[in-house]
Amino acid sequence: FGIATDENFVITTTNRKEITEDNFSKLVQDGVTLYLLQSVDQTLLSATKERIDFLPHYDTLVKSGMYEYYASEGQNPLPFALAELIDNSLSATSRITGIRSIQIKLLFDDSQGKPAVAVIDNGRGMTSKQLNNWAVYRLSKFTRQGDFESDHSGYVRPLPVPRSLNSDISYFGVGGKQAVFFVGQSARMISKPADSQDVHELVLSKEDF
Predict the structure, then answer these.
(1) Distance from the CA of 152 to the CA of which of 96, 163, 176, 185 falls in 20 to 30 A?
(2) Is the pLDDT score of 114 beyond 70?
(3) 39-61 pLDDT tens trace
C-alpha cells in the first residue's frame, strides 16, 4: 500500500471498529469491506461502496409486498404500508428526550427521478452494519446478534399499548421492505449515526434486481 515504515495506520470496518489481534477472526471474513486509515476517526476522502450479499429470488421482495397488502382482509392497504415506513422513524426517535420530528413527504415532481414517498426523522441514525441488516429479508430487528447490530439492544416488549407508541409494527423484520415494494419499485435509505461523521446510503430497487 505504499506505507512508510514509520507511518502509523489502522485497519477498520465500515462501522469504524478497529481490527486488532483479539477481534481479527470475528470481524475479518470473506466479503467484509475494510478501511485503511491514519486514524479511526479519519474523514474519508471520497464516497465508498460496501457490497451486501444475499440470495433470495427478487420476487421474494418485489412481490411479497403486493401479496401482503392485497391480502389485508379487503381493507384499504395504503395506510398500513405507510405505517410500516414510519415504524423505522418511531424506532429511531424512541430515545429522544426532546422533540421527536418525523416528516412524511409525498413528492410528485422529478426531483427524485420519479414520484416518491419520503419519511424523514431526527433519530439516532444507523451504522453501516445496521443498514446492512435492514436489507436482509426475515431478519427480525429484535433478534440480531453479534456484529449484526440491532437498534433494540436489551429490548423488552412493553405493556399492551397502541403499536404506534412502541414501534412494534414491523416486528418480524419484513414489513418495511414489503411496504416499499407495495408503494413503489425502489427504496433509498440515507442515514447518519448521531455519534459519527459518516453518512450511509442503501438502495434496493426492482430494476437492480
Answers:
(1) 185
(2) yes
(3) 999 999 888 887 777 666 666 66
Closest CA to 26 of 134, 129, 139, 155: 129
Task: Calculate the CA 43 to chain-centre distance.
Answer: 22
Q: Where are the domains of the chain?
A: 1-54, 58-146+165-205
For 69-94, the pLDDT digits (tens) are: 666 556 677 777 788 888 878 888 88
154 — pLDDT class (breaks 50, 70, 90) = very low
C-alpha cell at 50: 460496501
58-146+165-205 is a CATH 3.30.565.10 domain: yes
pLDDT of residue 145: 45
CB 119 within 8 A of CB 89: yes
pTM of the model: 0.61
